[in-house]
Amino acid sequence: MAERPGTFCLPATHPVFAGHFPGRPIVPGVMLLEWVLEECARLCGCATSALRVREAKFFRPLQPAQSAQLQLETGQGRCAFRIVHGDATIASGVVEWDVP
Predict the structure, then answer these.
(1) Within a domain: residue 85?
(2) Could you tell me which residues are beta bridge partners of residue 84?
């Protein structure tokens, strides 16, 4: 099943940008992965702690105040994700979980 769970956008005033990185701020990859895990957990009806990131590749940075969309393709025990800004892919990868 393919879904578009929503939009991610951090305001330029968010405190994370003070240290990541001064003078050239970008959204930390870990924040993007947290968003992916939360959306995957919502779709599969489990806790984020039950999920594991199988692979993740980051292609370009997301700047402060830029919005990104998340595309998910779920399957049996896995979820492929793609984070996009406009026509550009920011990151992609796979999240997995144990299937009872």
Answers:
(1) yes
(2) 69, 89
Query: Tell me: the pLDDT tens digits for 63-90?
Result: 999 999 999 999 999 999 999 999 999 9
Q: Which of 20-24, 45-49, 69-73 is predicted with the least confidence, judged by mean pLDDT? A: 20-24
- Identify whether 31 is part of a domain: yes
What is the C-alpha separation between 81 and 78, in angstroms, rounded? 10
Q: What is the DSSP string of 36-91?
A: HHHHHHHHHTS-GGGEEEEEEEE-S---TT--EEEEEEEETTEEEEEEEETTEEEE
Beta strand pairing call for 2-8 and 68-75: antiparallel
Total domains in the chain come to 1
The two tokens of residue 78 are: 């896995």
